[in-house]
Amino acid sequence: MEMIKMYGKNNKISNLQVAFLMGHTIIGVGILSLPSTLAEVLGTSGWVAVVIAGAIAIIPVTMISKLMAMYEGKNIFEISSHIIGRPLTYVALTLVIIDALGQGAFVTRIFGEVIKMFLLFSTPLEVILLTMLLTVVYTVRSEVEGVARFSMIVIPFIVIPILIMSTVLIPDLDFTNLLPIFKVNPVQIFNSIPSIFFSFGGIELLLIYMYYSKNPKSALKYNIGVVIAVTVLYLFSFFISLARFGEKGLAAQLWPLLSLSKAIQFPSAFIENVEGIIMAIWVIIAFTTLMSTMFSMTVLLGKMCKVEESKYFTLPLLPLIYFLSLIPGNVVLIYDFIQVFTYIFGTFALLLYPTVLYTLAVLKRKGEAKKNENTV
Amino acid sequence: MGLFNRFSKKKVGEKDSMKKEKSDIEKEKNNAEKKISPSKCLEENLKCMKEIFKDCEDVIFRDFKVGERQSEEFVAIQIDGLASKDIINDYVLEPLMLEVRKIEPEDVKKKLFKITKEGVISTIEIKEVYDLQEAVVNILSGETALLVNGYDKILIIGSKGPPTRGVSQAESETVVRGPRDGFVEVSRFNSALIRRRIRDPKLKLRNMQVGERSKTDIAVLYIEDIANPHLVKDIIRKIEKIKIDAILESSYIEQLIEDNHFSPFPQMQNTERPDAAASALYEGRVVIIVDNTPFCIIAPATMMTFLQSSEDFYQRWAIVSLSRMIRYLAILISLLGPSLYIAIVSYHPGLLPTRLALYIGASRINVPFPAFIEAFIMEITIELLREAGSRMSGPIGTTISIVGGLVIGQAAVEAGIVSPLMVIVVAVTAIASFMIPNYGFASAFRILRFVVMVLASVLGLYGIMLGLIIITTHLVKLTSFGVPYMTPFTTLGRTISDLKDTVIKMPLIVMRERQKLTRLQDKIRLSLEEENGNGDDKNVRKKQ
């Protein structure tokens, strides 16, 4: 009988759960404003940018999966120290933590603004943010197994209502708004790729989750599958918003998907206005993203401070995220803030760091293999 | 540095007052060495026993003489009411007093004990003990002790005849179709009821006595080549560690061996029906029978098992799937009913269709309270009625429920304190909470309903979502003997075939494999005679 410890915590989760965790992180908040950004910059051919960005996103995913499969059973701190040395690892991981922090604060603030605008009109923003963060802290304290199982169990509650509502929307859509589809302007698309690409931000957290996978070697197909699914989801939302609002109308919206929800009408059913249900799903989506970022921050802090039980770092992070999220004055400033932030830290964490680690690891392996050949 | 102790995984050893440490178990073994040895003289033994049972006036001491010349002295000790007098009269006293006279006196004198035990006493259960304390415990369990003059050992004759009721229908779980026998308060009868349904020598039964003063008989049953041996060992080890003075009911055991003491959700099932217990054994789970209670414990349990009832396997799959879906819906209604009303009426009236919103507004015009006060008043009234109804049994209880439910509800509406929709919501919620088969599981949702109501009154729909997230997190963290509580919903890998029995129950012919929640050894439950291309049997039971 295989000796995987079944009773008690063994801190390993299945590959499917790892992939879904990463998926939850990506579908954070980017999905809200992505269609309007695309329409503003590229018009009806925005879908090309999404597809290209998705294709590019597969590269860091592959690199990270292969890297963690090479160093099976070691966490990111050990791997990174092995490849680039300990002092540089501290610096690099701090930058990753700051990146996760920024994303977390961004998600929190946008979430608070949306709730205040659509659901609870007179509640102070601070109360909304604080209650959300406290709930996230409670979930993150249950470590990997709780976080992973939670992310698995909410999936049907997100997917099924969205599918039902999309089918109801169909009569309102005007698919001629999608034309012309293939009016592609390569230079424009090339310029817009960087900002679109950061809608896939969250992939770098795979560095942290793959450590907990039971079988890292076969994780690659799940991860790529999730990235493809996310791309399809973005395309889907873009097409539907475009069909509903048209190119210029879409560019003028702030959060097109939420405006879509106002258009959904179940004919004379019990709930006329499905905004409430969309908001409920929105709470879950933002929650999973926040949970994911906060979890990776606590784990990284724990590994850097060499302690086993990293769940005690969760509560101190709460005021940090809270105050960071309250810095921008209004919604416009939030988006400006996050642009700058992702250009600096996002590039590092998402592109630079995994690439450097992977190439150096491959070179090291080749070097060792050569050494072994020579000695033998 | 002591402040940072908690960061390292080595936890400072905690002394659980209800659990025995290894040192305690060793101390007990040492103490047990200091037994009271019976002496060879009958008088001394008798005096010792009478000392121990001083002021226990229901203990019978019967001294009699045996042999042709009435030379050997015997004393029989039993407890009036606990031990069966017929067995002793017919099979012990009569042979000893009458039949032994026919044996030669010299033989009798030399080998008295041997003759008594092996040749004369014609009961099936008999043993020797060498310790007075052990004999006392046996007497208190209903056996009869026989003291023989000149020997330092005591004969214990099995004569248990405790007062008990007959096997009747389990009152807490009734079915339309299915067996109607239920457990009784004697653990030996209960294990017999289970044995009837599992005629396999692999059904193992392990006896234990738990409780310092009560010394209650606990039996742990499992089927050896289906159940996971680690699970069985874990349960037995946890029961052996219990150190409490009395076990009055199986819930004491349940509360002492569970993984998460502070969770409102039960982590073990309990049942009064032998067929439910037998079906759990066939699935590789472990059954714990406790004396003096008809409720036996089934471990481990997951949310899926709490929402199954025994009737599910005796009816056809379509109706069972429908009832399962309604049960899952009932959980949601039971948890969220009043909270949704509060949230929608107070914070988001725009969510309702216009006509409904206008109707609610009109019906609430005269109500002086805001929605959440209304909801709390009605909920607390229902809880009071429920408690009152369960205190009073029989006709008074039903009268109170009817009076309370109909009259008070109607009067409250007419007095203008609550709106009629509120009464409907609260009534439907109460009915939904009765749909959940397991009472402990339903009670958890009763409690959580109030928590979610508070959250809804503060933060509206957002508060309800937060409450759901917190409850889901708690459920997802929970384990029952190492098995995650929300299997198979959370792990789509190994246990995906368990989904055949959750919301929708597939017909029996499709459910070939047992529930995988506990990593079983023997995985195939049903095999059909099929041939693959070579003419060999497919689906042959393979022992793994």
Lay out the secondary structure:
The complex is a heterodimer of chains A (376) and B (544).
Chain A (H helix, E strand, L loop, with lengths): L14 H12 L3 H13 L3 H25 L5 H9 L1 H33 L6 H16 L2 H11 L1 H15 L16 H12 L8 H4 L10 H26 L1 H6 L3 H8 L11 H30 L9 H12 L5 H45 L1
Helix pairs in contact in A: 1-7, 1-11, 1-14, 2-9, 2-11, 3-9, 3-11, 3-16, 4-5, 5-6, 5-14, 5-15, 5-16, 6-14, 6-15, 7-14, 8-14
Chain B lengths: L21 H12 L8 H11 L6 E8 L5 E8 L5 H15 L5 H6 L1 H9 L5 E4 L2 H10 L2 E5 L5 E4 L29 H11 L5 E8 L5 E8 L5 H12 L9 H8 L11 E3 L2 H9 L3 E5 L5 E4 L3 H4 L10 H30 L7 H10 L7 H21 L3 H21 L4 H14 L5 H39 L1 E2 L2 E2 L45 E2 L5 E2 L6
Explain what you see:
The complex is a heterodimer of chains A (376) and B (544). Chain A contains 16 helices and no strands. Chain A has 376 residues and is mainly alpha-helical. Chain A has one domain: Amino acid/polyamine transporter I (Up-down Bundle), CATH 1.20.1740.10. Chain B has 544 residues and is α+β, with helices and mostly antiparallel strands. Chain B folds into 3 domains: 125 residues, no CATH class; 115 residues, no CATH class; 168 residues, no CATH class. Chain B has 17 helices and 14 strands. In chain B, helix 12 runs antiparallel to helix 16, helix 14 crosses helix 16 and helix 14 crosses helix 17. The longest helix of chain B has 39 residues. At the A-B interface, helix 6, helix 7 and helix 14 of A face helix 8 and helix 17 of B.
